[in-house]
User: What shape does this take?
Amino acid sequence: FLEQVHRIIRSGRGVGFTSHAREMEIKPRSGQPYTRIFPSMSNQARAVIEAIVDYFFFADYLKDPLDQNKTRRIMICHGDDTIWAGARKGVAKNFPQFLPMEQEGGYEIIRQAFTGEFDGLDAKTLQPSKSTSRTVQAFVQKQQLQSVVAKLDNK
Assistant: This one.
């Protein structure tokens, strides 16, 4: 597996890996158990991929901020202990936390996010859909609260 992954990377092209996700309950020695979402690949495969990728994102469905009757696929670019998403240290200083995943113009959205031309979606506008996992719902609510607290701190 490692040999084949390195062969693909040496091809000189941009490479992206995708995986389904799985949720697992984490029971820390102290504190409350919590659920974590991460790639469903084996631990050995994940270790190989984690060692070579610069960015790792998670996608889920949330209500469309512009039309609450529709759902929209959203990419979470910065997670926490519950959502496996982020970037290698020092790579994505200003990358937005939430990006829309669009069929039309999706590449341009990601390009603009990389260059700092797109601020991403505001956490306050995101609402869970019927298919949003509870872990993602809790994560979005936490980001919304942090956004409110940050605004209060700046006043």
About this structure: The longest helix spans residues 134-154. The chain has a mean pLDDT of 87. The longest strand covers residues 67-76. The radius of gyration is 17 Å.
